[in-house]
Specification:
The protein is an alpha+beta fold and about 120 residues long. The protein has one domain. The protein is built from four helices and four strands, in the order ααααββββ. It has a four-stranded antiparallel β-sheet, with helices on one face.
Length: about 120
Protein backbone atom coordinates (compact mmCIF):
# COMPACT_ATOMS: atom_id res chain seq x y z
CA UNK A 1 0.00 0.00 0.00
CA UNK A 2 2.84 2.36 0.84
CA UNK A 3 4.47 1.81 -2.56
CA UNK A 4 1.16 2.50 -4.28
CA UNK A 5 0.75 5.81 -2.41
CA UNK A 6 4.26 6.88 -3.34
CA UNK A 7 3.67 5.88 -6.96
CA UNK A 8 0.39 7.85 -7.03
CA UNK A 9 2.09 10.95 -5.67
CA UNK A 10 4.84 10.74 -8.31
CA UNK A 11 2.25 10.35 -11.09
CA UNK A 12 0.27 13.35 -9.82
CA UNK A 13 3.42 15.47 -9.70
CA UNK A 14 4.40 14.48 -13.23
CA UNK A 15 0.96 15.24 -14.60
CA UNK A 16 0.81 18.63 -12.93
CA UNK A 17 4.29 19.76 -14.06
CA UNK A 18 4.47 22.83 -16.25
CA UNK A 19 5.18 21.67 -19.79
CA UNK A 20 6.09 25.12 -21.12
CA UNK A 21 8.85 24.99 -23.68
CA UNK A 22 11.63 27.49 -23.09
CA UNK A 23 12.12 29.42 -26.28
CA UNK A 24 15.50 30.69 -27.26
CA UNK A 25 16.35 34.03 -28.81
CA UNK A 26 17.81 32.11 -31.76
CA UNK A 27 14.64 30.10 -32.46
CA UNK A 28 13.83 30.51 -36.12
CA UNK A 29 17.21 31.90 -37.20
CA UNK A 30 18.44 29.03 -39.37
CA UNK A 31 15.10 28.58 -41.09
CA UNK A 32 14.88 32.36 -41.59
CA UNK A 33 18.27 32.34 -43.32
CA UNK A 34 17.22 29.42 -45.53
CA UNK A 35 13.91 31.07 -46.36
CA UNK A 36 15.58 34.35 -47.31
CA UNK A 37 18.20 32.64 -49.47
CA UNK A 38 15.60 30.47 -51.25
CA UNK A 39 12.97 33.26 -51.37
CA UNK A 40 10.53 30.95 -49.54
CA UNK A 41 7.79 33.23 -48.20
CA UNK A 42 6.19 30.56 -46.00
CA UNK A 43 9.50 29.69 -44.32
CA UNK A 44 10.36 33.36 -43.76
CA UNK A 45 6.93 34.07 -42.30
CA UNK A 46 7.02 31.08 -39.93
CA UNK A 47 10.58 31.87 -38.84
CA UNK A 48 9.86 35.55 -38.18
CA UNK A 49 6.75 34.59 -36.21
CA UNK A 50 8.98 32.45 -33.94
CA UNK A 51 11.38 35.36 -33.45
CA UNK A 52 8.52 37.79 -32.82
CA UNK A 53 7.10 35.41 -30.19
CA UNK A 54 10.37 35.78 -28.25
CA UNK A 55 10.20 39.58 -28.09
CA UNK A 56 9.27 41.19 -24.76
CA UNK A 57 6.13 42.52 -26.48
CA UNK A 58 4.52 41.57 -29.79
CA UNK A 59 2.48 44.79 -30.06
CA UNK A 60 2.89 46.64 -33.36
CA UNK A 61 4.92 49.65 -32.23
CA UNK A 62 8.03 51.33 -33.54
CA UNK A 63 9.96 50.28 -30.42
CA UNK A 64 8.96 46.64 -30.87
CA UNK A 65 9.91 46.63 -34.56
CA UNK A 66 13.25 48.15 -33.56
CA UNK A 67 13.60 45.28 -31.05
CA UNK A 68 12.71 42.77 -33.78
CA UNK A 69 15.35 44.18 -36.14
CA UNK A 70 17.90 44.17 -33.30
CA UNK A 71 17.06 40.58 -32.40
CA UNK A 72 17.41 39.40 -36.00
CA UNK A 73 20.77 41.18 -36.33
CA UNK A 74 22.29 40.06 -33.04
CA UNK A 75 20.87 36.54 -32.76
CA UNK A 76 20.67 35.47 -36.40
CA UNK A 77 23.64 37.30 -37.99
CA UNK A 78 21.33 38.76 -40.63
CA UNK A 79 21.58 42.40 -41.65
CA UNK A 80 18.22 43.94 -40.78
CA UNK A 81 16.95 47.52 -41.09
CA UNK A 82 13.81 49.54 -41.57
CA UNK A 83 13.55 53.12 -42.75
CA UNK A 84 10.25 54.28 -41.35
CA UNK A 85 7.46 52.96 -39.16
CA UNK A 86 3.98 52.52 -40.66
CA UNK A 87 4.90 54.50 -43.78
CA UNK A 88 3.55 52.10 -46.42
CA UNK A 89 0.17 53.70 -47.01
CA UNK A 90 -2.02 50.62 -47.32
CA UNK A 91 -5.05 49.61 -45.28
CA UNK A 92 -3.85 48.82 -42.71
CA UNK A 93 -0.50 50.63 -42.98
CA UNK A 94 2.66 48.52 -43.08
CA UNK A 95 6.35 48.75 -42.30
CA UNK A 96 9.00 47.24 -44.56
CA UNK A 97 12.04 45.59 -43.02
CA UNK A 98 15.07 44.82 -45.18
CA UNK A 99 16.86 41.52 -44.52
CA UNK A 100 20.16 40.39 -46.04
CA UNK A 101 22.01 37.13 -45.41
CA UNK A 102 25.72 37.46 -46.20
CA UNK A 103 26.19 38.48 -49.84
CA UNK A 104 22.76 37.30 -50.98
CA UNK A 105 20.10 39.63 -52.31
CA UNK A 106 18.20 41.82 -49.87
CA UNK A 107 14.64 40.68 -49.23
CA UNK A 108 11.89 42.97 -48.04
CA UNK A 109 9.31 41.78 -45.53
CA UNK A 110 6.08 43.70 -44.99
CA UNK A 111 4.88 43.85 -41.39
CA UNK A 112 1.52 45.11 -40.21
CA UNK A 113 -0.89 44.46 -37.35
CA UNK A 114 -4.07 42.57 -36.59
CA UNK A 115 -7.21 43.63 -34.68
CA UNK A 116 -5.36 43.12 -31.39
CA UNK A 117 -2.52 45.40 -32.58
CA UNK A 118 -0.04 42.50 -32.68
CA UNK A 119 2.76 42.30 -35.26
CA UNK A 120 1.75 40.30 -38.33
CA UNK A 121 4.11 39.19 -41.12
CA UNK A 122 2.38 39.96 -44.42
CA UNK A 123 4.56 39.58 -47.53
CA UNK A 124 8.06 38.82 -48.78
CA UNK A 125 9.39 40.54 -51.87
Amino acid sequence: MRNFSLFAIVIILLISCDKTVNRSATDGCESLKQGLISNNETLVKTSLEEIIANLPSTKYTEDNLTALVGSVQSNCSITATFDCFNCIKTLPPMTEIYLTVGNSATRIVDLSYNDANMIVVKNLH
